[in-house]
């Protein structure tokens, strides 16, 4: 089973390399505003990731704290909090 998965992955990588090497030349004009657009997209992506992390930071922190604690301590803490 693993050999067939590896063989399929290897065939896909080989096909991708062939497509990239045998592609025809493209004559396209990329003006300076295209670079500005790419930079603004990257800034937007990082800003969105930062906002999502800031929004859910407390939930993420509590989640990882619970992973590190044994299950018996969690049961004791939940009974004392109520």
Main sheet makeup? none
> Which class of secondary structure composition applies to the elements?
mainly alpha
The secondary-structure element order is HHH
Total number of domains: 1
Q: What integer value in Å does the Rg equal?
A: 25 Å
Percent helix range: over 70%
Task: Measure the end-to-end span.
Answer: 52 Å
Describe the SSE topology.
Elements: H1 2-21, H2 32-68, H3 71-81
Keywords, separated by commas or semicolons:
single chain, 82 residues, mainly alpha, 3 helices, 0% strand, flat
Structure description:
- This protein is mainly α and 82 residues long.
- It has one domain.
- The protein has 3 helices and no strands.
- The protein has helices spanning 2-21, 32-68, 71-81.
- It is flat, with a radius of gyration of 25 Å.
- The mean pLDDT is 82.
């Amino acid at each position: 089973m693993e050999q067939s998965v590896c063989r399929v992955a290897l065939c896909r990588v080989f096909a991708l390399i062939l497509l990239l090497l045998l592609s025809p030349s493209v004559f396209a004009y990329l003006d300076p505003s295209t670079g500005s657009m790419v930079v603004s997209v990257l800034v937007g992506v990082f800003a969105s990731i930062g906002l999502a992390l800031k929004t859910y930071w407390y939930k993420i922190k509590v989640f990882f704290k619970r992973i590190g604690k044994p299950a018996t301590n969690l049961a004791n803490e939940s009974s004392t909090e109520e």
